[in-house]
Specification:
The strands form 2 sheets. Strands 1-2 form a two-stranded parallel ribbon. The protein is flat, with a radius of gyration of 17 Å. The protein is mainly alpha-helical.
C-alpha cells in the first residue's frame, strides 16, 4: 500500500474486477481529445522534459541512482489505444523511448510497465484503470530487481516472489 489512499471496500469486493472492467470500457468510449484525463499533443512539454533532465543530472552528480518507469494501466485501455492508431497511439509509443534515452544518458534504468503482460500481470491486478495493486507493484519490483544489478542487492526476491505466488487474491500480498 503506497499510503496515498486505501481502497478498502474495493480490495474486499468480489465483483471488483467486473466493476473496474466496466469503468475501463466507459472511459474508452468517452476517450475524446480535449475531454478526458488522457490527453496528447503534437509533442511532449519541453519544460517538463527539461525538469526531468535537470533532476537526473543533479541526482547523478550527487551519486544518487534513479530508476524510472511508466506505471501500469489497463491492458484493455492499452489495446484500444494501440488499435486506434491515432495521436494517443503515437504518444504511447514515443514516450517510453524519449524517457529511456534521458535516463540512459545518466546511466540510470528506465522501464515501461504500461504493458502489464511484460510482468505476467493482468487487469485483474489493477485497482482502477490507471492504478496497479500491491500485487502488481510487487511484480514490478521483482522485475526491476532481477534486471537491475544496482537494485537487486536491496530486494529479497525470494520472499517477495513467495508473497506474490501465495497471495490469496489478485490485489494484496500482505
Amino acid at each position: 500500500n503506497d499510503g496515498s489512499y486505501y481502497y478498502g471496500q474495493f480490495l474486499n469486493d468480489p465483483d471488483a474486477f467486473q466493476k473496474m472492467h466496466k469503468e475501463t470500457e466507459s472511459f474508452i468510449a468517452n476517450l475524446v481529445p480535449g475531454t478526458s484525463n488522457l490527453e496528447y499533443g503534437p509533442t511532449f512539454s519541453p519544460s517538463s522534459l527539461d525538469l526531468i533532465d535537470n533532476f537526473l543530472e543533479k541526482a547523478s552528480s550527487r551519486g544518487i541512482y534513479v530508476v524510472g518507469f511508466l506505471p501500469p494501466y489497463s491492458q484493455l485501455l492499452r489495446e484500444k489505444v494501440l488499435k486506434a492508431n491515432n495521436q494517443f497511439t503515437k504518444s504511447m509509443q514515443s514516450l517510453p523511448v524519449i524517457l529511456r534515452n534521458r535516463f540512459n544518458k545518466y546511466g540510470f534504468s528506465f522501464y515501461d510497465f504500461s504493458d502489464i503482460s511484460l510482468i505476467k500481470s493482468s487487469d485483474k491486478e489493477l485497482i482502477d484503470i490507471v492504478h496497479g495493486s500491491e500485487k502488481m507493484y510487487a511484480r514490478i519490483m521483482l522485475h526491476i530487481s532481477r534486471t537491475d544489478i544496482k537494485i537487486s542487492p536491496f530486494v529479497d526476491q525470494t520472499t517477495l516472489k513467495e508473497r506474490v505466488d501465495n497471495s490469496k487474491n489478485n490485489l494484496k500480498i500482505f
